[in-house]
TrEMBL record:
InterPro entries: FBPase_C_dom, FBPase_class-1, FBPase_N, FBPtase. It is found in: Cytoplasm. This is Fructose-1,6-bisphosphatase class 1. Its EC number is 3.1.3.11. It comes from Marilutibacter maris. It comes from the Bacteria. The gene is fbp. The lineage of its organism: Bacteria, Pseudomonadati, Pseudomonadota, Gammaproteobacteria, Lysobacterales. Homotetramer.
Amino acid sequence: MSSLSPQASPSPVSLTRHLLEEQRAGRINADLRLLIEVVARACKSISIAVGKGALGGVLGDAGSDGEASINVQGEAQKKLDVLSNEILMEANAWGGHLAGLASEEMDHSVPISDAQPRGNYLLLFDPLDGSSNIDVNISVGTIFSVLRCPDGVTTPGDEHFLQPGTAQVAAGYCTYGPSTMLVLTIGHGTHAFTLDREIGSFVLTQRGMTIPEETREFAVNMSNQRFWEAPMQAYVGDLLQGREGPRGKDFNMRWVASMVADVHRILTRGGIFSYPLDSKCAAKGGKLRLMYEANPMSLLVEQAGGAASTGRQRMLEVRPTGLHQRVPVFLGSRAEVEAAVRYHHEHDSQEQGDG
Ligand code: FDP
């Protein structure tokens, strides 16, 4: 009779097995492993709801009596935004691994109630990113970030979530596209799992994603060009000049307008993603959210060998001042992010010299 040996087995590696192996290797503890499993399970439920589309009655705006429902960001909520938030909240309320949760869709963080067992982690999430793409059947996704609850804190408030991105113990996203994929880091590389819909399990399909250092592809909403700061104007201006310009090569452009999908492309084949400061969003500090979008994506990108910056500072070192704080974002292929940052630094030091 043949014995079952992992080496001889051609069986696919499930997320559960991968996390158990990480635990045995001492890179993760049981609580964090189980917390990630709960998030992954919630993502499967969201994937089912997204996949039903119009048949599930979940498309369109949330709200009633013709009144749109507006979230804390001042944006109209979609039914799927609300549903995804509820799925993540419900799944994580009773697992026993969390001390509190914060969602892009909610004004304040929520501590785990006294009636439930509490753990030592804080979970932040953007339940459905790219929601303007929901109704047109384009990829959307869930982004999440895990922090440690500070020692001695049993009922965390918003201030306990205000930790820099370097403090994240795990981060990931789930993209609901032609296939549903979970991309995860626990600080030891970035790995991709594809949902096998027949067996309902995430299967490891790319171990150690690696972003090429150089790229010829950029992602930005070009319609904002006239609102950008001078260094961004100069940077993209030079990209557009292609082979004849100072960069000496032609660049292609892609913009899905779902951050999860754009970042997934960059993790897969390289590129630079940018949502820079512009005069429309300057008062808020930027368009994208530090805690729910920029930080988790930056950890995933750095763990895949890429770089992430605000244009002036490494993203993961930004000291958060608010749960819903916004920041400019540049992330992706290391050499290209460094080039964009150089334009900002050169502009700033010239300004200081002139002043
Ligand atoms: P959305 O508002 O649709 O949720 O998080 C904000 C975000 O999407 C990102 O996913 C996306 O990259 C960006 O905004 C799209 O912005 P534009 O509408 O300016 O293109």
